[in-house]
Amino acid sequence: MTVDFIATSIADQAYGRIRQDIIFGRLEPGSRLRLERMSSAYGASVSTLREIFGRLSSEALVVAEGQRGFQVAPVSREGFRDVAAMRLLLETYAVPLSFAAGDLEWESRVVAAHHKLAVLEKRMLAGGRADAETWKRYDRQFHQTLIEACGSQTLLDLYTGVFDQYLRYQMVAVVFRGAIAATEHRRLLDCALARDADGACAILDAHVKGCIDDTIENGRLS
Predict the structure, then answer these.
(1) DSSP secondary structure string, 127-192?
(2) Is the Cα dihedral 147, 153, 157, 159 positive or negative?
(3) Where does 77-217 sit in CATH, by number?
(4) Does domain 2-72 correspond to CATH entry 2.60.40.10?
């Protein structure tokens, strides 16, 4: 039993590290995942890595190349549009449910998540240096907290997977739309506290579509 537990722990740890490295761009889109090299880097056997890559393939983060092995899923403008559309669909569905059910504890978590994001955005607007990965983690946390009271774990799990794909595109493009994005986040907080789901959904529509337009118009995705 101990051996099985350790093996599972190693596999789960390697899966988590590889997944994060793909999402945050440390493993670049389209790059080959060489089993021997990654076995050394992640401390997992080749057979364990094959299982992990199969799992990541089901999440559209890795692509199997038949006998040639695996590669990190490539990115494209069309792919970004598709992922963004799915994110918007799920988020605007969950927002009314979460706003209706959210209690005072939920409000406090929303406020706290926004505060961390707003502080970092203020620093970036002032020309200060900010780690892109930390910024996007705070961004993800804020949006996830907005919908966490929706009452459906299945919906939250699905949203997390889609948002992580969306986040991967953002990390490739490293897009920060400045004061526009910061203002939209503040308005989303105001809508949450006022329980204005219709207003929040309208802001989310502009927020996500604005990011798509800015990314594509500025040529940050081939």
Answers:
(1) T----HHHHHHHHHHHHHHHHTTSS-HHHHHHHHHHHHHHHHHHHHHT---THHHHHHHHHHHHHH
(2) negative
(3) 1.20.120.530
(4) no
Q: How remote is the C-alpha of 84 from its chain's centroid?
A: 11
What pLDDT was estimated at residue 5? 41
Strand (E) positions, 82-140?
A: none
Cα distance between residue 177 and residue 175, in whole Å: 6
**pTM for the whole structure:** 0.85
Give the single-character DSSP code of 28: -
Render pLDDT for 23-33 as a digit per residue (tens, 0 to 9): 988 999 999 99
Q: Which two structure tokens, joined as six digits, stand for 106?
A: 């939920």
Is the pLDDT reported for residue 214 higher than 90?
A: no
